[in-house]
Amino acid sequence: MSKDRLYLFDTTLRDGQQTQGVQFSTAEKVQIARALDALGIDYIEGGWPGANPTDSAFFDAAPKTNARMTAFGMTKRSGRSAENDDVLAAVLNAGTGTVCLVGKSHDYHVTKALGISLDENLDNLAASFAHIVAQGREAIFDAEHFFDGYKANPDYALQCLHAARDAGCRWIVLCDTNGGTLPDEIGRITRAVIDSGIPGSHLGIHTHNDTGNAVAGSLAAVDAGARHVQGTLNGLGERCGNANLVSLIPTLLLKPQYADTLDTGISPESLRDLTRISRQLDDILNRVPVKTAPYVGASAFAHKAGLHASAILKDPATYEHVDPSVVGNERIIPMSNQAGQSNLRKRLGEAGLEVEPGTPALGAILNQIKEREAQGYSYDTAQASFELLARRELGLLPEFFEVKRYRVTIERRKNKRNQMVTLSEAVVVVKIGGEKKLSVSESMDASGQDRGPVNALANALAKDLGPYQKFIDDIKLVDFKVRITQGGTEAVTRVIIDSEDSSGRRWSTVGVSPNIVDASFEALLDAVTWKLVREGAKAP
Amino acid sequence: MSKDRLYLFDTTLRDGQQTQGVQFSTAEKVQIARALDALGIDYIEGGWPGANPTDSAFFDAAPKTNARMTAFGMTKRSGRSAENDDVLAAVLNAGTGTVCLVGKSHDYHVTKALGISLDENLDNLAASFAHIVAQGREAIFDAEHFFDGYKANPDYALQCLHAARDAGCRWIVLCDTNGGTLPDEIGRITRAVIDSGIPGSHLGIHTHNDTGNAVAGSLAAVDAGARHVQGTLNGLGERCGNANLVSLIPTLLLKPQYADTLDTGISPESLRDLTRISRQLDDILNRVPVKTAPYVGASAFAHKAGLHASAILKDPATYEHVDPSVVGNERIIPMSNQAGQSNLRKRLGEAGLEVEPGTPALGAILNQIKEREAQGYSYDTAQASFELLARRELGLLPEFFEVKRYRVTIERRKNKRNQMVTLSEAVVVVKIGGEKKLSVSESMDASGQDRGPVNALANALAKDLGPYQKFIDDIKLVDFKVRITQGGTEAVTRVIIDSEDSSGRRWSTVGVSPNIVDASFEALLDAVTWKLVREGAKAP
Where would I find the Pyruvate carboxyltransferase domain in this sequence (chains A, B) (predicted)? Predict the structure, then answer.
């Protein structure tokens, strides 16, 4: 049986840019467009040319893609022809093969927001799309507020869709602009649209996550017959975000009810890049990836409960709905205080440490973990520190160097221009073999801003480790989390540090102390030591 | 028409505790239980007594609630009677009126994971629930892997449910344990269960978010007739989390298709606490609240797009599916401050500052708050720092003293007995009137343990403030919270400090800086200054 083609339309660069706190540069837009194209997305909506400078610049710089590059705009305004509407002209001037225009389909918005008659709006829709089609472009109609419009005045809402369709629109996209429509309503109303004479092969869906149902709403429209889905990477978008394509794509490719009947054009090979692409977007936005994200989150295949963890060891399918590797993700069995020796051996195996059952060190490692977790350590996320702890017990950790002492000074005082400034300075003294090395660092970033004592310490520690320097030069501190594990003045601080190297490898380490600087230093030390282990460095 | 009762079952304290990186203390569990009870949740699942010490301790300390406190456990094991199963006995010994047991309903898991016959499992289910009911407890069956089990062997899966029901179970809960079942399947299978003779008034749903559809799956089961929904606050839970009650509750109360036919027992007044409760949980977990969270996120009603923002000013319903105030959230529109000023005056009044409407300082205060919140400050909890900011703008803050400079040194080195020890020392220089005062302090507690640089700074700052000393001698640092407000190397640290004096008065102050010590110092300084204001101290 031949499969129906389901088209994916990405609007990360347009609707996704409406996310609070998000502002892409042109270079970032180009980078994201390339990633979307490599993934195999059908349409990339690049922005609204003419509405802001970055969007216009993007279309000038847009990379050559297999995906159809799409410019966004709005239908022509009343009182002028489509040919003479300068806003529309700017959109067409971007020169894309596909043009997507938002327009009204809710009677209330026509009369209240536009202040024109219902018929006038129908004329504007027809004229706008006829103009685009006459220019040889593919036309898409984003029918704004369609579901609310349909509930208020179904006849008029449908008339709007048909006006656009009759003018030659390739796709009529039903938009739940306010995000308040629930999936069952979306399914029911989509079926009503198809019954009105617009075939599903020309229908699209555009949802928002204001009730937490954007993905389900999209699936409901596909179930009803729509064959075009709009969404964004990582669910970026105004308010609560748009439908998350990173959640939708694996469901469409992996769940039999979709995989057996629909073809999205995305290959299994591309699907394995999904986790990487999702995290790349977070990198560009300087955000910490959401651990609990469906399919691609760092916790999406993490098994903490004792019962679950032991069942997973027998058969992964017991607590996993799909194999994590098909989306480029990994299974994680964290060490929590219920974990037994078999979990431990599994985790050690993943770190390349094969240990025979019954080895006495296994019991010692479990005891150490238990003891340290009671002090405030946590090895759920700090896998690299876990590995070092295990290696120490197993006698598999070289003594690369010894820290003799360190000193950090933080000073706040007036500078020459009589401004209060803060300065941090760190001195670290290590012994490598017989040789003593003193390193000192400040913690200024490129802009001259003090980044604090932990940065100063990290810089000093990594400044001169002699024979190891070549292994650690590419370590970058990418995240830093602090948690106070006991309240009050007896507070104990837990610091978790995420590091990354030039190969893209990422690892997490932990330190605990009543002194936050000391806790940080412990985590930094583990980060460096783990890298040396991974690089196969030898003790002096 | 009388409405059907829909029961809400919260498992934040049990399944929510399976979240990677989450480990509640007993005190935190009590605090969360109180919040759930105030919200009007029907069932609070407190944990698995006997499985870990915190859960057992919680049931000993559990607060008196209107909600039905529920202990979790598993059905009796084979080869012993329900009366002689020690795991089950520990669950019953918690003394809760309701007991929820997880048991198998998927044939594969019975034979593979338990290694017993299908009939034996049915006997275990019947015996376990009969035993609970005989003890006068309300019984709930969490049918693990039910949807996968139904797809594999519908007859057997249904037999398991009926065995529990016939033994007197109040609720049969259909669990999508792996989170892979899509909403339309959940709806279809729930209807099949009802058709098999278990009425919806005895059926519950328990979903996970592995495909991003946990909320939609719960709604699909309710649509099919289920009248008990399990979930967690903020969607905590193993892997991608459980169904998020914070998203579900407003949908059930505000959307006509549910509000007109179902009664959840949650009042409109309680619903207005939802945003606060959601953020309180994040505070307890020291997490940054998710801005894009449906209904309660800080961005959930933020309107960035120019077109949207101007339409919102004409009529909020144009781009909002519900009114933000009904869930205790706020609309955010750039350049709108009408609502802002009256809220602000209300808050100032709470701090004893009566300000006339239209006073120009009000606009200046709002701008300051906005600017500082963009830098990472938060005045939600740090009331004392908010008051100081407002007093400064209103010209109501005396200049008690000036900090000229401070210096903190943290040193780790070997002591005389060749042990590595950490020492912190702080010097603070202030000017009071014309007089300069230098103070120095270490940070040792009574046991000789270093408590870190922030303690050293607090001690030095409060050591000698001359004429003010009598006002500040009784300040105690009682809590210290650190949060990184931006990820990566550009991390900015927010410190919130809670202080207390001998009268039992408590106040919170905030500091923000890339340098954690500097952020702490700012919060300490506010703590001292606020106390001087409260004591009516005069500038020198």
Answer: 6-272
Q: Which two structure tokens, joined as six digits, stand for B304?
A: 């960035």
**CA B439 to chain centroid:** 40
What ipTM is given for this predicted complex?
0.76
Asked if B300 and A476 come within 8 Å (Cβ–Cβ), the reply is: no
Q: Confirm if A91 and A50 have CB atoms less than 8 A apart.
A: yes
Q: Do A292 and B322 touch (CB under 8 A)?
A: no
Strand partners, A72: A100
Which positions in chain A touch B51 (Cβ < 8 Å)? 306, 338
Buried b (16+ CB within 10 A) or exposed e, A254-283: bbeebeeeeebebeeebbebbbebbbbbbe
Q: What is the pLDDT of residue B308?
A: 63
Chain B nearest-CA residue for A425: B409
User: B318, B138, B302: which is closest to B228 by C-alpha?
Assistant: B138
Best B112, B292, B299, B490 residue to mutate vs chain A (most A CBs within 10 Å)? B292
- As a whole number of angstroms, the distance between CA A430 and CA A436 comes to 6
Distance CA B243, CA A50 (A): 42
Contacts of residue A450, Cβ cutoff 8 Å, sequence gap at least 6? A421, A422, A423, A424, A443, A444, B514, B515, B518
Nearest to A247, CA basis, from B210, B216, B207: B210
Which domains does chain A possess?
Answer: 4-266 (3.20.20.70), 334-396 (no CATH), 402-534 (3.30.160.270)
CA-closest candidate to residue B16, choices B349, B242, B304 = B242
- Please name which of B12, B13, B68 lies closest in space to residue B40, comparing C-alpha atoms: B68
CB contact under 8 A, B405 and A413: yes
Coil, helix or strand at residue B433: coil
pLDDT band at A338 (very low <50, low <70, confident <90, very high): very low
Q: Is A405 close to B411, i.e. CB distance below 8 A?
A: yes
Question: Strand pairing partners for A424?
Answer: A410
pLDDT, one tens digit per residue, over A366-420 is 888 877 877 778 887 788 999 999 999 999 999 999 999 999 999 999 888 888 8
Distance from CA of B174 to the nearest CA of A (A): 16
**Cα–Cα distance, A97 to A95 (Å, whole number):** 7
- Selection from B174, B173, B234 nearest residue B209 by Cα: B234
Cross-chain residue pair A302–B488, CB shorter than 8 Å: no
- State the distance between the two ends of chain A, measured CA to CA, in whole angstroms: 66
For chain B, how many helices (H) and strands (E)?
Answer: 20, 16
Give me the residue from B213, B409, B449 closest to A216, CB to CB: B213
- CA distance to A25, A164, A198, A354, A441, per residue, from A459 (Å): 30, 61, 63, 35, 6
**Would you state the structure tokens that stand for residue B9, as one six-digit string?**
């079952």
Q: Looking at chain B, which residue has its C-alpha nearest residue A484?
A: B481
Minimum Cα–Cα distance from A283: chain B residue? B488
Please give the residue of chain B at the shortest CA–CA distance from A243: B212
- What pairing do the DSSP bridges indicate for beta strands B402-414 and A402-414? antiparallel
DSSP B434-455: TEEEEEEEE-B-TTS-B--HHH
What is the mean pLDDT of each successive set of 10 residues along chain B, which is 540 residues long?
93 92 84 95 96 86 95 95 94 96 96 92 98 97 97 98 98 97 98 98 98 98 98 97 98 97 97 93 81 93 67 77 93 52 77 87 86 77 89 94 94 86 93 93 81 90 92 86 64 84 87 91 96 93
**Which chain A residues touch B489 with a CB distance below 8 Å?**
445, 451, 455, 476-478
CB atoms within 10 A of CB A128: 27
User: Would you say how long chain B is, in residues?
Assistant: 540
